[in-house]
Amino acid sequence: MSELQTDHPAINRNIHPPILALIFIGLAILLGWLLPIALPAFVEWIGLGLILIGVVLAFGAFNEFRKAHTTLDPHGSVKALVTQGIYQFTRNPIYLGFLLMVIGFPLNSGSYSGLVVAPFFMVTMNRLVIEKEEAYLEKKFGEAYTGYRSRVRRWF
Questions:
Q1: CA dist., res. 101 & res. 120, Å (int)
Q2: Assigned domain for 21 exists
Q3: Does the residue 18 lie in any domain?
Q4: How many domains does the structure of the chain reveal?
Q5: Is there a domain that residue 115 lies in?
Q6: 8: pLDDT confidence band, cut at 50, 70 and 90?
Q7: What torsion do the CA atoms of 64, 58, 139, 143 make, to the nearest 10 degrees?
Q8: Where are the alpha helices (DSSP H) in the chain?
Q9: Of 60, 68, 83, 94, which has the highest C-beta tally within 10 A?
Q10: pTM of the predicted model, to two decimals?
Q11: Of the candidates 48, 28, 50, 52, which has an alpha carbon nearest to the alpha carbon of residue 111?
């Protein structure tokens, strides 16, 4: 195969991080519906806050990718290593935003269940997406990426 054909992470084409996040949000809401626990009303506001922070993280990441003229597609070929803006604090702000939404949407609908499914979401994202993205970035950018990885945490 040519370099052009192999210049992308080895992520299964059927795996889409936003869809995974939606699946886990749905599972958490279903779990909360099946096993309801009464929550104080202020917890719904905490959930809304987590959702908003998740959206801000995603938009911050989008902005940095746009400025670097590279793709957000986890199956695509990146043109630049993005380490500025929100990427100075977390290597995966979009996935961290998804995690906050996995926790926040159930909280906002009155359920703690997002806290139960969140660790499973993190493991799933790490295994199916992040490990493959990181292997690709290390191969493509070498020391620039390994140095960045040693300075900036994966999630938070």
A1: 14
A2: no
A3: no
A4: 1
A5: yes
A6: confident
A7: 60
A8: 3-6, 17-34, 42-67, 93-108, 113-125, 131-141, 143-151
A9: 94
A10: 0.92
A11: 28
Asked whether the beta carbons of 79 and 68 are under 8 A apart, the reply is: yes
- 5 belongs to a structural domain: no
Distances (CA, A) of 124 to 9, 13, 16, 41, 119: 16, 15, 12, 31, 9
Domain that holds residue 64: 43-151
Token match 């949407």: residue?
105
Confidence of residue 2 (pLDDT cuts 50, 70, 90): very low
Q: CA–CA separation, 42 vs 46, rounded Å? A: 7
Instruction: Retrieve residue 87's tokens.
Output: 């990427």
Amino acid letter, 60: G
